[in-house]
């Protein structure tokens, strides 16, 4: 299991904003939803495409490639063409910074 990866200072990730961090070879999309931070793998499960390029609204991200949507809080796939959830990762806020890790 990897250690925690620093994403950014909390002041650098305002509500509605997102950042991508890397834990080894894993891209992790971290999103601030109204002051709560969530992290999912930055890869659509339908096709290998980064979710960070997508459209964010109502706690969801829509993949720009084919329109699959995912719940950023749970990783759940919400519509076709994606049927599998994206991996969800832990997030912690410590010493004014946002941290995540690939805990698979």
Automatic annotation (TrEMBL):
SUPFAM superfamilies, per database record: ISP domain
Protein origin, superkingdom: Bacteria
Gene Ontology MF annotations: 2 iron, 2 sulfur cluster binding; metal ion binding
Species the sequence originates in: Arenimonas malthae CC-JY-1
Protein name stated in the entry: Rieske domain-containing protein
Annotated ranges, domain Rieske: 5-100
Record flagged with keyword Iron: yes
PROSITE patterns on file: RIESKE
Annotated InterPro entries: Rieske_2Fe-2S (IPR017941), Rieske_2Fe-2S_sf (IPR036922)
Keyword entries, A-Z: 2Fe-2S, Iron, Iron-sulfur, Metal-binding
Keyword Iron: yes
